Amino acid sequence: xxxxxxxxxxxxxxxxxxxxxxxxxxxxxxxxxxxxxxxxxxxxxxxxxxxxxxxxxxxxxxxxxxxxxxxxxxxxxxxxxxxxxxxxxxxxxxxxxxxxxxxxxxxxxxxxxxxxxxxxxxxxxxxxxxxxxxxxxxxxxxxxxxxxxxxxxxxxxxxxxxxxxxxxxxxxxxxxxxxxxxxxxxxxxxxxxxxxxxxxxxxxxxxxxxxxxxxxxxxxxxxxxxxxxxxxxxxxxxxxxxxxxxxxxxxxxxxxxxxxxxxxxxxxxxxxxxxxxxxxxxxxxxxxxxxxxxxxxxxxxxxxxxxxx
Length: 309
Ligand SMILES: C[S@@+](CC[C@H](N)C(=O)[O-])C[C@H]1O[C@@H](n2cnc3c(N)ncnc32)[C@H](O)[C@@H]1O
Fold this sequence. Notes:
By secondary structure, the chain is an alpha/beta fold.
């Protein structure tokens, strides 16, 4: 082998191991940071904190694949200061999310891929306080921004769907992300909404973004499964016994993203880890992983599951 080529490979190996040291360093666990290694030798780190702030500490170009589902606009109150999802305007929500995604862009490798799961929200404009939602103790809203009159400042008529996923995707596209596929996640057997004057919703968006025109992608699993390639029919996750209300996405959704979008031995990130689905599925599939969540209870739950692997 020519020396220059050999030197370059060695340099690359050193660079990768330095990045790994930075992501999975052997510092003692603290109240905001936990590290571990699975029985199969896969490393994991869970950080408790704001995803934008924590991401700022991670090295450039260190992650192969991101799979994440941020809080949807005004759907749940996760009960934490600094949470995303309860902004007063659509613009503030889109800005907050695209700021996190700007940091995600920096930490993603040039050949990396991001899968972003987002659902939409209706604007009711009814103007009345919801008080406590009977459906969930986690939904402790006063008067939600999406119920206030005034069209949310963007002229929305009452009863309009806001178009949140596409507003976020368009903003991200204007900031360097390449939107490669707006995959539809058809939520098989989901509970029908109790609405009589429009079709009940049964899908969410799963946007596949790349950072560069050339990136890792393995189409074979989609061909082998004989499934629709950009419409994935996967059952929603039944309520778990964990008691955590994180709106978790199904293991199969994460697994499919990783099968097609993450190279063997890759490192997987979820900046909105919730109950830890992405990290758990990633380690089970043989990847190392980094997860971030604002809620310490959710982080500890993820850590306890990762320690069993
Ligand atoms: C839809 S849930 C993620 C569910 C996850 N995919 C699962 O399977 O459990 C969104 C998560 O984002 C977290 N979150 C909200 N704002 C955040 C922020 N600014 N930084 C980090 N995490 C945040 C919430 O605590 C919640 O766990």
